[in-house]
Amino acid sequence: MTNKFERDLLRGSLDLVVLSVLAGGGKKYGYLIQKEVREASGGRVDLAAGTLYPLLHRLEDDGLIRSSWDAGTGRERKWYELTAAGRKRLSAQAQEWADYAACIRQLLAIAKVQPAS
Amino acid sequence: MSDHEFDNYLALLSRLLKLGKKQRDAIAGELRSHLEDRLEDLVARGVPRDEAVRQALEEFGDAAAMAAEFVSLSGNKRKRWIMRITTASVAAIVLIAAGIFTFWPGGNAGPGAAKLIAQAQQPDTKAEPAGDDKATEHRKAVAIKDVLDRRMAFDFIEKPLTSVANQLEKQTGITIYVNARKLEEAGVNVDTPITMAFPDMRFRTFLDLMLGELELMYLVKDDVLFITSQEDAESPDNMVARVYDCRELLALPRPPGSIRPKAAGAAPGSNATGGEGDSKEGGDAAQLEIADSENLIEVITTIVDPESWVDVGGPGAIVEYKGLVTIAATQDTHQKVERLLNMLHQAANLKELKVTVVE
What we know:
The structure holds two protein chains of two kinds. Chain A is mainly alpha-helical. Chain A has helices spanning 7-11, 14-22, 30-40, 49-61, 84-110; strands at residues 28-29, 65-70, 77-82.
């Protein structure tokens, strides 16, 4: 069960993954976000730094998150938090994913495909 | 805690990022904190330090791939920026251009064209009562420009910026506003003592020197000289669009025997031959002109603030339309562009450059 998800499957949902980790409230920096994603997914989603940071910068450019520098934790870090627009996008995307998952489940049920566990 | 192997990686990445210095530094700083966090975690877990450094870097992957991701992001941003500029200014530019072409008889740059350009200089005329006020407004703006070019003596010893500004106001007769909030946001202390003494220096040079040291900039708006942070001066709000009439410059004949450049991306059927240059070249001249405009843009973006243009992640944009070079940039950059273009005009024995402001 600890297999990682397929990259292609993940690609479309990375924004959602990062936004939802930030929705937990408070500010978080990149390393922490990476760690929380890993923990929350039981190790099945591992965001490489080379994916995570460009992604964070894009979300910031889009106004979904905002950042600030702070050295309060003993190291100068860039902290990210959700904006109102980000919160809105998150709930819209969450809805979309729930619908999508339900749709796939139904498709599989019609086709009588059993997951090979 | 910083490790020199991280330094090497980040320096390489930084070089690969074709972005402005500020952006490069921010990205390197952010990634450095990540690497150091990772190193700390691994060492705490008992991984030997050397091995931990290696592993942290390995997880980061190829610097080139990482840099490419960031650069492609800024490319998208650039496109959005250009969209913003174009929607705002294209209408104005087209109007001006149409006006000039209508009133430009043959190759003769008559005074009619200059007048038209001048009329377009105040875009928010609706807010202003009448033409007379507009003229005064214009004269005052010119006055600040004159003051900036005036030579005078400066003598400040251990004076905070605010009192330097006060004294400069008295000395020059212009209004100076120190934007304390923007300075604070940029982390510049208004009370930093300034010591600078020059018996004879142009006001402009002095400001550049003094503010450059504090990483600040100045800009002129509504007859006031604002002292503000670089970030604020480079924000879209403070970007100014200006049109530089480079048609005469572009219509210059090439020295005989020189290689003709390929007219890459040339608009077909463009035969806007401006200026007074003799038109012996005929059809060839038009073709040369088109290719040369790209060279001219290259001259400008190479000589003037090379790090400030959008293609390297800066805020400034430059486009050319039939010999009218439109630039959206900070006032500081515009001054340098104007100086450079005037130098080119002088070197080519042309009359002075015409500039239109479409703020």
